[in-house]
Amino acid sequence: MTLFVRALGALLGLLIAAATANSFEAFSSSSNAGFFLAAWVLAWPVVGFLITPYLTIVPATWLLRRVQELSTGEFVTAIAGLLVGLLMGLLLGAPLAGLGPPYGQFLPLGVSLVLGLGMLGLTVAKRHDLLEAIEALGVLPQRQPVNPGSPAGSPFIVVDTSAIIDGRIADIVGSGFLFGTLIVPRFVLQELQHIADHPDANKRNRGRRGLEILSTLQKDERLPVEITDEDFPEIDEVDAKLVALAKVRDAAILTNDFNLNRVADLQGIRVLNVNHLANAVKPAFLPGEELRIRVIQEGKEAGQGVGFLDDGTMIVVEGGARFLDRDLDVTVTRVLQTVAGRMVFAHPRLD
Questions:
Q1: Which among 104, 154, 193, 239 has most CB atoms closer than 10 A?
Q2: Across-strand partners of 116?
C-alpha cells in the first residue's frame, strides 16, 4: 500500500513539474536551461515519492487508531457533535460570506472548523450529562436498571498478569464478590507463558501457578472468562495495552500493580485492586481490644516483639521481645494504616 501511494505521489510530482516548467524564464533564457529543466522535472517526482505517505497514510493511520480507541458512546456523540457544529458553522458562515475578500473567503471555513471541532470535543466530554438531559425532556425513554446477573448487564473486567499470578483472584471469584465477564487479553497470556518458561525457578513456578489459576477460572461457570485477541501493535508496554483495551471495551482493570493502578486512575478507568480489597476486609481493631498471638521475631525498636494474625496483619508488641516463640495475650493500644497495610501496636496483657 505504501509503495502504491509513493508511486502516485511521484506521478503527481511529475505532472506538477510538467505543468509549471513553462512558467520559469530560467528554463528558456539561461544557457543552462536544459540542466535546470531536467533538475526541475526530476525533483518533483522525488519529493512526491518521499512525502506523499506522510501526507496520506500516516495521518489516516493515526486517525484510525484514535477512532478504534473510542467507545461506541464516544464515537456516536463525536459524530453527532461534529454534525451540529458544522450546521452551526453553516448558519453563521452564510452572512460572513458576504464580506469583502479575503474575509468572505476564509471566515466561513474557519468558523465551521472551530465550531465543528469544538462541538465534537464538548459532546464527547459531556455525553453522559447530555443523555440524562435528553431523557429528562422525554425525547428518549428512561433507561431501565439492568439486572447485573443478566448477560446484557454484565460489566467487563480486564485482568492483569499480576492479578492472575497473585492467586487470590480465584478465591475472590469463588466468594461471589466479582460479577461480569473477565477479559484476558492474548498479550497477557503471552507474558504469563514467558514467565512460566523463565530460567529462574521462582518466576517459573509463579508463571505456572498463574496458568493453573486461569485454567481453574475458565472451568468456574459462575464467572465467564473471555480470551480476546484484541491487541495494539503500536503500543509496546503491556500496562499501556491494558489501559487502551479497557478504554475500548469500557471495562475495569483487575490488578495489584501499584503503577498500573495510578496510570489507570489518571485516565479515568475504574481499577479493582486486589491489595486494596484485602486491606479493606481485614478486621478493624480498637484500642483496648484483646488478642492472642505468637511472637515470632524481634521488632525494629529495642524490646519490641512481632507477631502476625491469620490474615497477615502485623502486631507489634511493646516489650514483647522477651516472649519470643511463645503465645501471648495482648491488648491493642493503637492502629496505623500504612501503604503496606495495617499495623497494630499492643502491650502484653497484665493479669
A1: 239
A2: none
Residue-number span of the structural domain to which 336 is assigned: 290-348
What is d(CA 116, CA 121) in angstroms, rounded to the nearest whole number? 9
Q: Is 66 helix (H, G, I), strand (E, B) or coil?
A: helix
Of 91, 112, 136, which closes a domain?
136
- Look up the pTM and report it: 0.46
Least confident range from 150-159, 178-187, 302-311, 324-333: namely: 150-159
Closest to 67 in 3D by CA, of 195, 248, 233:
248
Tell me the pLDDT tens digit for each residue of 81-123. Answer: 889 888 988 888 888 877 777 777 788 888 888 888 888 888 8
Same domain, yes or no: 188 and 77: no
Cell numbers standing for residue 223: 464467572
Half-sphere exposure in the Cβ direction for 65 (13 Å, CA): 12
Q: What is the largest CA-CA distance in the chain?
A: 116
